[in-house]
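From the methods appendix. Each design record in this collection lists the tokenized structure first, followed by the designed amino acid sequence. Records were kept in a plain field format so they could be parsed without special tools. The example shown here is representative of the layout used throughout.

RECORD:
FOLD TOKENS (259 positions):
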């Protein structure tokens, strides 16, 4: 059963230039082979949608099991906008729209925009400016949802192209989100002092240190769930592409045999 592998190794040893050429030829088809399931309806969006479902479940558990303060409620809003609404809308976009996002710089621009808005939104001055009036608060949530949609659409398009860029962007984004959550958890005082949230669906009362720490804990739980799930999904697609690309390489090595 090891004979085909040994035959390929003999070819490499006797004619390394030819073996390298055949290997490069096989690898050049990797991006096309990595997307071999793209014709299945919704296959490209399975990872982001699974990530959105996990975040939605986390939101539901937290909302049902604990008293929610204004900072925790704001975190739930942010997670819903960027990690639930964003992936769902991105998965619903027409293929032609996602194809327009195939340039790698759009992926990194979307990732940078998403993280910049996330950090800016958690600045105390911005929190006080947006949580006291309906229009600024609703506008900020819509902007977060739009940025999330752009990012996740670029991630889905990256998977279609068989690019590792989407995986790298997911990992970097997850780390930056976790860093913000850690800062909220380990702060020694309430950084915000919010009296409440204008779009609250329940009475949340003023913010507190416990509220801030719960918001940070929610972030470092839900964000890695989202980005890690989507990252594992894309890595699995890429590994399937590598496995698929290895077949023609082995066949070429065996068919050209010893020189």
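DESIGN:
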């Amino acid at each position: 059963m090891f004979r085909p592998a040994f035959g390929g190794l003999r070819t490499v040893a006797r004619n390394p230039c030819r073996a390298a050429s055949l290997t490069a030829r096989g690898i050049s088809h990797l991006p096309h082979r990595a997307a071999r399931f793209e014709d299945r309806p919704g296959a490209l969006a399975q990872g982001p949608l699974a990530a959105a479902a996990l975040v939605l479940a986390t939101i539901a558990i937290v909302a049902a099991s604990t008293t929610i303060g204004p900072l925790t409620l704001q975190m739930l809003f942010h997670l819903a906008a960027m990690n639930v609404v964003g992936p769902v809308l991105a998965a619903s976009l027409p293929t032609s729209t996602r194809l327009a996002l195939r340039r790698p710089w759009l992926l990194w621009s979307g990732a940078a925009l998403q993280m910049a808005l996330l950090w800016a939104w958690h600045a105390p001055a911005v929190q006080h400016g947006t949580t006291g009036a309906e229009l600024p608060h609703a506008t900020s949530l819509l902007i977060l949802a739009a940025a999330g949609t752009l990012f996740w659409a670029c991630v889905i398009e990256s998977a279609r192209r068989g690019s590792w860029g989407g995986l790298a962007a997911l990992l970097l984004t997850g780390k930056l989100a976790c860093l913000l959550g850690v800062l909220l958890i380990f702060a020694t005082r309430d950084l915000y002092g919010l009296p409440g949230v204008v779009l609250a669906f329940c009475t949340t009362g003023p913010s507190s240190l416990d509220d801030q720490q719960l918001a940070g804990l929610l972030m470092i739980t839900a964000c890695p769930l989202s980005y890690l799930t989507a990252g594992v999904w894309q890595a699995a697609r890429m590994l399937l592409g590598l496995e698929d690309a290895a077949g023609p390489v082995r066949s070429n090595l065996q068919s050209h045999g010893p020189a």
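APPENDIX NOTE: Residues 1-13, 15-20, 26-41 have pLDDT under 50 and may be disordered.
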